[in-house]
Structure formats: structure tokens, C-alpha cells
Design goal:
The chain is α/β, with parallel strands linked by helices. It is built from 12 helices and 10 strands. Helix content is about 40%, strand content about 15%. A 6-stranded mixed beta sheet has the order 1-2-10-7-8-9. Helix 7 packs across helix 8. The structure holds pyridoxal-5'-phosphate.
């Protein structure tokens, strides 16, 4: 059911040749068709912990388009958990494709207003939920961003059997890049690409990995704003698909790859550098596929 370790592929373009760098893509998008790449990395040890605690209900939080919500719903379906999704904001019908998918996996969705959502007060939320057994619930934080998630993301590095200098990935909460940074050699650097403006992100990542401050840097990839596209981005994703038959999503991985190409072009990486870009997924949404494939 899971394709692990995920494959790693070399990306050869005029640009990499001209600037004499080697670029690889770690295909975490291929781990599972319904569980977005890094969301599985983040769920893995959380779910193992839930199983260890003999709990059968996963409760988590997310926005209406959250890949973490859909991934948790799918993981619950395959691994026999009851799943409860607490969604930020009002219910809109018809449901968008992400929430439709979550429901089709059996996830029970509850909506809370933004203020209540921020507080993430489980007992208030629980009053809405029928037939719950508090002792049976394992709570996953928003975006799956827990200690267990770091451990799962660190495994991305274990699976890479080439020598690399830089490892790059998209950042939302920064959990994935933090986990990666815990598992690098002194000579290796992680570069996180935040896709939303988040002034404290650097500090928040440092707090997750207090001993490793110098292992990572952040480079803005908010291009056009969170979950927004620009004509250049759409063009880039289409061209990338045609050249390499690899689909990038427009919220995370397309932006990272576009920024990475710009950095290579600007001579950011010295000659002979080896760069690994982690394709964190996000492409399982049919809308994304139809929008960018042709
Ligand atoms: C959620 C997500 C991210 C962000 O991961 P964080 O660990 O929150 O930084 C990156 N890429 C994709 C495709 C995602 O779904």
C-alpha cells in the first residue's frame, strides 16, 4: 500500500548543466495516492503511538483545504480508525473536493468558528460530537506538527542514498524541514521554502530543534500569496510536467521548484553542488491535476 522508500530521480535541464549543479527530486508524492507525501511522514509515528495507547479514534484540526485533514481521513480508512476532523470556519455546501474526499473516507466533520478554532479547546469541541469515548481519542495537532512528526520526517534523509549538500522542501508549519534538519551531517544544509508569510517561522523551527540552529535556512516562496497562483507559476508547473512527467502542486511544491530554479540561475549554489528537493506531495487533488496537466 505504501511505496517506501520513495524513489529519488535526477532532474537534468539546461539550467543544471549550465550552472554545473546536480538536482534530484525525492518523490514523497509517490508514497501513497491518497495520503500526501509529508503528511504520511508526519502521521506515521503519531499513528503508531495511538495504536500503542490502544486508541481507535483520531481527532485533528485543519482548514477546509487542508492536506493534513484528507491524509488523516485516508489513513484512518486504511488503518481502521474512527476519524474526526475539526474544520476552521463555517460549513459551505457543496463541500469542496478535499472535504468531500475526507467524508468519503468516513471522517466526521465538525465546524468551529475561527475564535474557537484558535483555542483548540477539545472539551468545547467534544460537546458537538455524538457517541465519543474521550479515552479512545488520540489528538493530532493541526498539520500533524508533533514530536512524533519530526521523527517521521527525519526518515526522509535516511532514505537518500546519494551524497548531497542541500536538501530543500516546502514549509507550512516547518515541521518537515525541522525533522529533516535533525538528521543531517555537518556539511549538509536544509533550506526551507515558506509558502506563506510567517514572520516567526524561523524562531518556531528553532524551538522544535533547539540544538541545530545552524543547520537550516529559510527562503521565501510565498509567490503571489498562500494558495494563489501567478501566470508564471502555472506556466512553470506545466512546462515542468511536460519536460519531466512530474506533477507539482501550486500551493507548495511548484513554488519551491520555481524558487529553486531561480536560485540556481542566480548562482546561489556553487559549482558541483548536489541538491535534493523533497516533493512533499499535494497533487492528489483532481482539480490540481486537471488544472495543470495539459
Ligand atoms: C502540509 C504540506 C507541506 C508543509 O509541511 P510542514 O511540515 O507543515 O512545513 C508541504 N508540502 C505539502 C505538499 C503539504 O501538503
Amino acid at each position: 500500500m505504501f511505496q517506501l522508500p520513495s524513489p529519488i530521480q535526477k532532474i537534468e535541464t539546461e539550467l543544471t548543466q549550465k550552472f554545473d549543479v546536480q538536482l534530484f527530486i525525492k518523490r514523497d508524492d509517490l508514497i501513497h495516492p491518497e495520503i500526501s507525501g509529508n503528511k504520511w511522514r508526519k502521521l506515521k509515528y503519531n499513528i503508531a503511538q495511538a495504536q500503542l495507547e490502544n486508541k481507535h479514534t483520531l481527532l485533528t484540526f485543519g482548514g477546509a483545504f487542508s492536506n493534513h485533514i484528507t491524509a488523516t481521513a485516508a489513513a484512518g480508512k486504511y488503518l481502521n480508525f474512527r476519524t474526526i476532523g475539526i474544520i476552521r470556519g463555517e460549513k459551505y455546501t457543496p463541500l469542496n473536493t478535499s472535504l468531500q474526499f475526507a467524508e468519503s473516507c468516513g471522517m466526521e466533520l465538525f465546524y468551529v468558528d475561527r475564535t474557537a478554532y484558535k483555542q483548540k479547546n477539545i472539551s468545547t469541541v467534544l460537546t458537538q460530537i455524538p457517541n465519543y469515548v474521550a479515552a479512545d481519542i488520540f489528538v493530532l495537532p493541526e498539520g500533524g506538527a508533533s514530536e512524533w512528526a519530526l521523527k517521521g520526517c527525519a526518515e526522509i534523509v535516511d532514505e537518500i542514498n546519494i551524497d548531497f549538500d542541500f536538501i530543500c522542501c516546502a514549509c507550512g508549519t516547518g515541521t518537515t524541514i525541522a525533522g529533516i534538519a535533525t538528521n543531517l551531517k555537518n556539511t549538509q544544509q536544509a533550506i526551507g521554502f515558506p509558502v506563506l508569510k510567517h514572520p516567526n517561522l524561523h524562531q518556531e523551527i528553532e524551538q522544535k530543534i533547539p540544538d541545530l540552529k545552524s543547520n537550516f535556512s529559510l527562503i521565501d516562496a510565498s509567490i503571489g500569496g498562500y494558495a494563489k497562483t501567478t501566470p508564471q507559476l502555472v506556466q512553470f508547473i506545466k512546462a515542468f510536467y511536460h519536460e519531466h512527467q512530474i506533477l507539482l502542486d501550486y500551493v507548495y511544491t511548484g513554488k519551491v521548484m520555481l524558487r529553486l530554479f531561480e536560485l540556481i540561475e542566480q548562482g546561489y549554489f556553487s559549482k558541483k553542488s548536489t541538491i535534493v528537493m523533497v516533493h512533499t506531495g499535494g497533487t492528489m487533488n483532481a482539480n490540481v491535476f486537471n488544472k495543470f496537466k495539459d
